[in-house]
Design goal:
This protein has 278 residues and is an alpha/beta fold. It is built from 7 helices and 17 strands. A hairpin with a 2-residue loop joins strand 2 and strand 3.
């Protein structure tokens, strides 16, 4: 089990430090004794600017883990390849599918803003996984996340294009990163489309660790019903993580509810902030 980890937020919706840049998206620099990783790349090169200002050496990463195929988690990848060249990338094969979301203004494309073959020519080495896989000792990629709870469902507004048809996108390409530590499992979510409860239960199964030290990342609760937020918070109470670090798309209503219930166990981080084993 890992005896140390450090997570530095390189891209997030909020920022306080005037030298750093915020944007709609997520990118986290993950340090472990087994090696460093980059989890998601935001939507532009902002995470690179922030890493440089924070003194973080992105050449040290062994893998880039992409949580799912939406632009605000994958858009910065071309800039990273331009900066460092050969890069190992871990993701689900469906990450590159054409993805859309229905808005009042119409159907907008929200998938990866690049072509895989182009990035391969620029040094990207893709490793596709659909099942749980240990990419470093005690560092797991989840594979597809089983959908078990009746209240964590994918909005019908999400679509993917198959041949010439638009169908509901269940976002099966979404994966999380799990660190199996001596304090419990640390679960790092991109957007949490599959649901934070589904994700935490799956993380405990694949790591064979029945205690969650922390859940960190987007939980996709912005704009959902109060009933759904309450159900998720009630089930978080049952799982009983030591810390909750809501980022990106979690939403203010859900964060407020989490603060009310979990109090100082909730850590609200901005770009440049660090969460590490205490």
């Amino acid at each position: 089990m890992l005896e140390f980890f450090r997570l530095t937020i390189l891209c997030e919706n909020r920022v306080v430090n005037r030298k750093l840049i915020a944007e709609q998206g997520l990118s986290i620099f993950v340090e472990t004794p087994q090696g460093n990783l980059l989890f998601d790349t935001g939507q532009t090169d902002a995470f690179i600017h922030n890493a440089e200002n924070l003194g973080i050496d992105l050449s040290s990463i062994k893998f880039v883990v992409l949580s799912h195929g939406h632009y605000d988690h994958t858009g910065g990848l071309p800039a990273l390849l331009k900066k460092r060249g050969e890069t190992e990338i871990v993701c689900h094969p469906a990450l590159v599918h054409k993805k859309y979301r229905i808005y009042p203004a119409g159907r907008l494309e929200i998938g990866v803003p690049w072509e895989k073959n182009t990035l391969v020519k620029e040094g990207a080495h893709f490793h596709f996984y659909t099942h749980p896989h240990q990419i470093l000792p005690d560092v797991w990629i989840s594979g597809e996340i089983p959908r078990l709870t009746p209240y964590e469902v994918i909005d019908e507004a999400y679509q993917q294009k198959v041949l010439e048809s638009y169908i509901h996108d269940e976002i099966h390409d979404e994966q999380f990163l799990a660190l199996n530590t001596t304090r419990g499992v640390v679960v790092i979510l991109g957007c949490g489309h599959a649901g934070p409860i589904n994700s935490l239960k799956h993380a405990m199964r694949i790591t064979q660790n029945d205690h969650v030290y922390a859940v960190v990342g987007g939980m996709h609760l912005n704009g959902v019903s109060e009933e759904r937020i309450n159900l998720i918070v009630e089930n978080l109470e049952i799982i009983n993580p030591d810390f909750i670090v809501p980022l990106h798309c979690t939403g203010f209503a859900a964060i407020h509810r989490m603060f009310t219930v979990f109090k100082d166990r909730v850590k609200l981080l901005n770009v440049g902030d660090v969460f590490e084993m205490e």
